[in-house]
């Protein structure tokens, strides 16, 4: 044993007491703080994204830089497409650094609104938009958005 070992204080053992004797407190993150973090993710999507979602609509197509985990947490079908056994991810091509997910049958403007909603942003609706967005939200099972579109259409 070296001299340095002799000079170290002995390790203290933690004494565990009954949980009933100790005060407990549960902390929860403020919803506005969570929303702020999602907004920051949305604003910095090119830096934080790990997947490129290619949305091919009937008239146009568009690429969206996305965070797969955020999409998966909001949509069971997108979770399956991104991470499930029958994943539809395409490995990145030589010029791209992110894997790609191709979605057909959804209009890019509609996916953009769905993406904004998932990131906690407000989505402005009119009747035509709400009907198309309702179908997309239903297909991707973003149920609060679907229900919001339904309520808007019933009130219109």
From TrEMBL:
Gene3D superfamilies: Potassium Channel Kv1.1, Chain A. Residues 1-26 are annotated as: Disordered. InterPro entries: BTB-POZ/Galectin-3-binding (IPR051481), BTB/POZ_dom (IPR000210), SKP1/BTB/POZ_sf (IPR011333). It comes from the Eukaryota. Residues 49-156 form the BTB domain. Pfam families: BTB. This is BTB domain-containing protein. It comes from Emiliania huxleyi (Coccolithophore). The lineage of its organism: Eukaryota, Haptista, Haptophyta, Prymnesiophyceae, Isochrysidales.
């Amino acid at each position: 044993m070296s001299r340095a070992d002799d000079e170290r204080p002995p390790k203290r053992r933690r004494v565990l007491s009954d949980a009933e004797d100790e005060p407990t407190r549960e902390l929860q993150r403020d919803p506005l703080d969570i929303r702020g973090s999602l907004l920051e993710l949305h604003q910095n999507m090119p830096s934080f994204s790990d997947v490129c979602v290619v949305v091919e609509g009937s008239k146009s197509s568009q690429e969206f830089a996305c965070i797969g985990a955020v999409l998966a947490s909001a949509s069971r079908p997108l979770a399956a497409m991104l991470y499930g056994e029958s994943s539809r991810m395409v490995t990145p091509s030589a010029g791209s650094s992110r894997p790609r997910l191709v979605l057909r049958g959804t209009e890019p403007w509609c996916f953009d609104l769905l993406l904004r909603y998932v990131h906690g942003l407000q989505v402005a609706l009119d009747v035509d938009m709400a009907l198309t967005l309702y179908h997309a939200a239903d297909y991707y099972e973003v149920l609060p958005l679907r229900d919001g579109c339904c309520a808007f259409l019933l009130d219109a």
